[in-house]
Amino acid sequence: MGSTAKAIAIVGAGPRGIGLLERIAANVPELYGGRLVVHLIDPFPPGPGRVWRFKQSPLLRMNSMPADVTMFTDDTVQCAGPIRPGPTLAEWVVGVRAGELAADVNPELLEELRSVTATTFPTRRLQSAYLDWFYAWVLDSLPDSVDVRVHEATVVDITGPADDIQSVWLSGRSEPVLADVVVMTVGHLDADPSPEEAELADHAARHGLRYVPPAYTADLDLSGVAAGESVLLRGFGLAFVDLQVLLTEGRGGRFTPGPGDSLVYHPSGAEPLLYVGSRRGVPYHAKPAYPLQGNPAPLPKFFGPPEVADLLARPERLGLRRDLWPLMAKEIGWGYYHELFAAHPDRVRLELAEFADRYAELDWDSEEMASLIEKAVPGAEDRLDFAALDRPLNGLRFIDRTALTHHVSRYIEADLARREDSEFSADLGAFLALLSVFGQIAHLVTAAKLTPESQVGAVDGWWFGFFSYFASGPPGHRLRELLALIEAGVVRLVGPDMWVRADDGKFVAGSPSVPGEIVATTLVEARLPKPSVRRATDPLIRTLYERGELVEEILREGVQEHTTGRITTTVLGGLVDADGRSHARRYAFGPHTSIRSPGAFTRPQTNAVGFRQNDAVARAILSDFK
After folding, report:
1. Of 21, 15, 11, 40, the residue nearest 151 (C-alpha)
2. What is the pLDDT of residues 424-447, one digit of tens each?
3. Measured in whole angstroms, how far is the alpha carbon of residue 520 from the centre of its chain?
4. Confidence of residue 2 (pLDDT cuts 50, 70, 90)
5. Looking at 208-212, 288-292, 536-540, which range is the least confident one?
6. Whether residues 38 and 186 fall in one domain
7. Structural domain of residue 498, as residue ranges?
8. In the listed set 408, 442, 471, which residue is the last one of a domain according to the structure?
9. d(CA 188, CA 441)
């Protein structure tokens, strides 16, 4: 490359980084006619990155079906750049099996490659192979004017003024990578313990206990957890599922078929005793294992661009519960009831068209809406009840842990029945509407339209938590394994509103819903760290933060300040410094930035936020190069 070439450094070469590379390649022919070098910098392989690398336990699986995962834009994506369609993970598998797509697949994956279907849940290592192939596809599609250079290293610093070349300093290197623009594709940031977590860690150190703070589960060293040891797991989401796998089947236990669809767990004897609890006291809902049975509901309908524009035009800041939730709930309800009426007319008393007309006229939380639904949907089990969904154990008290275990086990069985039986496909209608709502909220968040209290507590807190609980749960077989582990006595339940305290040389836990306390020698926070720039362990984040060149997002309302913990960026992802200035040569985006990109893979035909952001950033950078 000649000295006149422009250079872009992408810090982070996982799915988001190579997704940005694809958008750069797609937009170069239109926007930039010169030579271009793109530096991909990551200590992990480009494509899979850290989370999806091949070198992890073969027992760990995706929480999405192959048909629901894509790295390619499609005709629903509303972006200025060209659409370049390609295979979903399911279509890639079929193409590789048929010899229509050339892919260098590790021999350890060949059996899975032959057996996986569009609706089963593949291993993360198979997804790693798909990402390897996608990265190779992007390289093959590059214009001749674009050169990609890979640096297997960690970025420790970036220096340079806002109007000149940036020096990107790498671990173990004396010379920097020089770039006109740097883009940090930020995933979930590792963080030092919070004050509460530090106290628990100190208690463990002083008393010979073990405390594991929030972290990415696949990276944890769990070898010190002894067989038969009592372990508290605080969290009942996806991190718990990974811990459940690694500490049971990963220790040599095995599952065999039981009566009906059940499983039986055969312990190896190397397992610890796992006591699990959380705020809700139940696991995330299983992923739906069926397609829609009726025609898809037109989405968005009640919470789309016109409604968002009206909200943005209001002079006052908005509250989620007061201003957004009535529209959000109506949109989710529309997805749910549209599928119920379209696919299961024997369980309703009106035609879809008549119900839709009446539904459109009414406010979600009105008595008239409640009356319409009650009259049109006779079965209470077919009505959408957000309060019961959100806190299924709310108000319940159990005489002992046996009663709690029986109740939660029946709850899990009922959830599996709904998520694996297409008679309940209305749940998938709600799921798809949730995805639509998620995308619309992003516009209000990036415009800073919400009150700080609502943003931090209601959106970043309750809404993201509810979304994950309802829509981002594990495949059904993981819950069936959980039932088998409960039956075997390996997993035991703490209860809802779980509390933990460090007490007299031990960890003690319990729940206000069930009498008694549990004593343990290990406490594991079964969740990822919350966003926190101030406590981030990444050397680049820490260095830039200490110099004031990167700041933690703080939302202000009068004299009150609310921190979100995220990296502050502009709407387009420009990095903002301590003086409030946007750096013209530095960008950052991802779930731990203020633009709050989704952390999950893109579902096809959903006009995905991540694709739109990638395209907008790529076009902004290339346009500046003219």
Report:
1. 40
2. 999 999 999 998 998 888 888 877
3. 30
4. very low
5. 288-292
6. yes
7. 205-280+480-525
8. 471
9. 20
- Domain presence at residue 563: no
Q: In this structure, is residue 533 part of a structural domain? A: no
Q: Give ∠ CA 588-447-9 in degrees, rounded to 5.
A: 15
- 269 and 385 part of one domain: no
Report the number of distinct structural domains present in the chain.
Answer: 3
Does 291 fall in a domain?
Answer: no
Residue 540 counted as domain residue: no
127, 71 contact by CB (below 8 A): no
The structure tokens 């397992």 sit at: 271
Q: Tell me the mean pLDDT in the region 60-76.
A: 94
pLDDT at 1 over 50: no
Asked if residue 16 and residue 133 are part of one domain, the reply reads yes
Q: How far apart are CA 439 and CA 425, in angstroms?
A: 22
Collect all residues with Cβ–Cβ distance below 8 Å to 622 and sequence separation of at least 6.
24, 27, 28, 31, 32
pTM above the 0.90 mark? Answer: yes
pLDDT for position 442? 81
Long-range CB contacts (within 8 A, 24+) of 215-222 = 215/190, 215/525, 215/528, 215/529, 216/50, 216/51, 216/188, 216/190, 216/528, 217/242, 217/243, 217/246, 217/526, 218/51, 218/56, 218/57, 218/60, 218/242, 220/246, 222/246, 222/247
Same domain membership, residue 337 and residue 462: yes
